[in-house]
Amino acid sequence: MVTRLFVPLSDCEVRDPRIRRTRQLLQGALRTLMQTKGFDEISVQDLTDAATVNRATFYDHYTDKFALLDALIAGGFHQMLHERSVRYDGSCASAARPIILAACDYLATHQSSCPESTQKSAFEPLIEAAITHAIRRVLLSGIAKTTVTSGPSAEMVATTASWAIYGAVKEWLKTPDRAPAEEIVAVILPLIVPILQAVPPPKSNAAAPALPVG
Amino acid sequence: MVTRLFVPLSDCEVRDPRIRRTRQLLQGALRTLMQTKGFDEISVQDLTDAATVNRATFYDHYTDKFALLDALIAGGFHQMLHERSVRYDGSCASAARPIILAACDYLATHQSSCPESTQKSAFEPLIEAAITHAIRRVLLSGIAKTTVTSGPSAEMVATTASWAIYGAVKEWLKTPDRAPAEEIVAVILPLIVPILQAVPPPKSNAAAPALPVG
DNA sequence: ACCAATAAACAACATTTGTCGGTTAAGTAT
DNA sequence: ATACTTAACCGACAAATGTTGTTTATTGGT
Question: Cα(B173)–Cα(B184) distance, rounded to whole angstroms?
Fold first, then answer.
C-alpha cells in the first residue's frame, strides 16, 4: 500500500509538525541559497541537500521549485502585512498607504536578495502573482460587496488596484537611484485612490461619505 | 571553430531568412500543440519535432520554452495592436479605450486556446508580463515626457496604467458568465482614466487641456 | 560566381526532473 | 501503552534538459 501523499493545505493551517518542519526547512534552504546563486541555478537537489530532506519528499509538498518560491514570497509578504497590522478600512481610500509602503519595502529588500543572474526564468512573474494576490486579498476585505450591478464589482476594483500598485512599485524599483519609499508612496497613492473610490465605502462606519485623500 | 550562436534580436528586426523561418516554425508549432495539450505537457522535443527543427537549434533561439511562449504572446498581441492601428494619443485619456478592448479580445481568444490542464506552470504569469509590456509601450508613446520632477514620471504612469488594465481584464476573464467586451470596457475605462490624467497631455495638440472622459 | 560568415543539423554527454514501490519512523487517537 | 495513520526516507527508473564539438548548407557581400 502506498497512498501517495498530497497536502494542498496552506502553510499556516497545517497541524502535523512533520509537515511544518519540512516546509520550513525547504523554504529556509531556498532563502539562503538565493543569497548566493540565482534562482535558475538552483536545482531541487540543491534545495533538498541544503534542507537535509530527501528529494522525493520535496515533491510531496511542491509540484516544482516555482511553487516553493511562490509559497515563500506569498508567505513572507503576508507575514509582513500581519506584523505591521496592515488592514484596509475602506472608509478612506488613503488607507491604502500602508499597503503601498509594505509593497515597496518588501520588494526593495527581496530584489537584492538574489545576485543578478535572473536572466531566464519565470522568476519575476511569480513574484508578481504572489504579491498582487496578497494585496488584492487585503483590499477586498475592506471593500463593500456591492449588490448593485452598475459600475465595477468589488472584485474588479480590488484586482485593478492591486495590479496598479504592484506595477507602480515595480517601476519605482527599476529606477537606478530611487527616492526613499515614503516619498514614492506619496506619488503612487494619488494614482490608486481614484480606483478605490469607484466603489462606495462600507456602510459600517460611513459617518462622512468617502473622505478624499487624507 | 564553433562561434556559438546568440541572437537576442527582436523577431521583427531579423534579416536572415533562416532565423525568421526557424522562429516562425517554432512559434507555429507551439501554437498548434497548445490546441491539444497543456503548456506544461509540451516538451522541447515535442516542439522541435512538430517544427521539423533540430532540438539543439531551439536553444540557439530561446533559453527555454517559456521564452518561446513569451515571444509568441508578445508578438501576437503587438500584431493585433498594429492591425487595429491602435495608438495612444495622450490628448484625451479615453483614447485608452481601444487598448483595453484589444486586451480583452486578445486574452479572451487566447485563454481558451489551451485545454485546461494549466495546473502547475508559470504559464499565466508569462502572459501577464508580455501583455503589460506591450500596453506600457503603447501608452508611453502617447504620454509627454515630463521634465518636471514633481508628481509621477511618464514611465510611472504608463506602467501603473498598463498593470491596472491587465488586472482589470484578467478579473473580467475570470468571471464565469461575463459581459461582452464592449460593455466591460465602459466599466474599466473610468478606473484607468484618472491614472493617465496624472500626467499633463503632450503640448503638440493641446487645444483644450485634458478633456475628461469622452 | 566565388568566398567568408554563420545558421542548422547531428550525435553524444552529464545532469536534472518527476515518479514509483517499498520501508522506516514519527505523530495521533483510543 | 498500543495500534492506526501517515510523513519521510531510500533506491531506481524513464524522460527531459541544456550544452558541446563537429559537419553541412544557406546567405549576403564583393
Answer: 10
- State how far the alpha carbon of A26 is from the alpha carbons of A19, A204, B7, B177, in Å: 11, 43, 37, 40
Q: Could you please report the per-residue DSSP string of A126-187?
A: HHHHHHHHHHHHHHHHTS------SS--HHHHHHHHHHHHHHHHHHHHHSSSPPPHHHHHHH
Q: Give the residue ranges of chain B where pLDDT is below 70.
A: 1-3, 6-8, 112-122, 146-149, 201-214
Count of beta carbons in the 10 Å neighbourhood of residue B93? 26
Interface probe, candidates B63, B189, B191, chain A, greatest A C-beta count within 10 A: B191
Question: Three-state DSSP class for A35?
Answer: coil
Distances (CA, A) of A81 to A106, A131, A143: 10, 11, 17
d(CA A175, CA A168): 11
Q: Where are the alpha helices (DSSP H) in chain A?
A: 17-33, 44-51, 55-61, 65-83, 97-111, 123-141, 154-174, 181-196
Q: What ranges do the domains of chain A cover?
A: 9-65, 84-196
In terms of DSSP H, where are the helices of B41-180? 44-51, 55-61, 65-83, 97-111, 123-141, 154-174
- The gap between A210 CA and C13 C1' (Å) is 67
CATH class, range A9-65: mainly alpha
pTM exceeding the 0.90 threshold for the entire prediction: no
**pLDDT at residue number B145:** 75
The tens digit of pLDDT for each residue in A147-198 reads 666 789 999 999 999 999 999 999 999 998 999 999 999 999 999 999 999 8
Task: Tell me which residue in A129, A167, A187 faces B151 most closely, judged by beta carbons.
Answer: A187
Residues in contact with strand D, defined as Cβ under 7 Å from any of its atoms: A 3, 5, 7, 16, 18-19, 21-22, 52-57, 60-61; B 2, 4, 15-18, 43-46, 55-56, 59, 63-65
CA distance B51 to chain A (A): 23
The DSSP bridge partners found for residue B211 are B92
**Chain A CB contacts of B160 below 8 Å:** 164, 167-168, 171, 188, 191
CA B48 to CA B43: how far, in whole Å? Answer: 9
Cross-chain residue pair A120–B168, CB shorter than 8 Å:
no
Task: For chain B, say whether A186 makes contact (Cβ under 8 Å).
Answer: no
Count helices and strands (H / E) in chain B. 8, 0
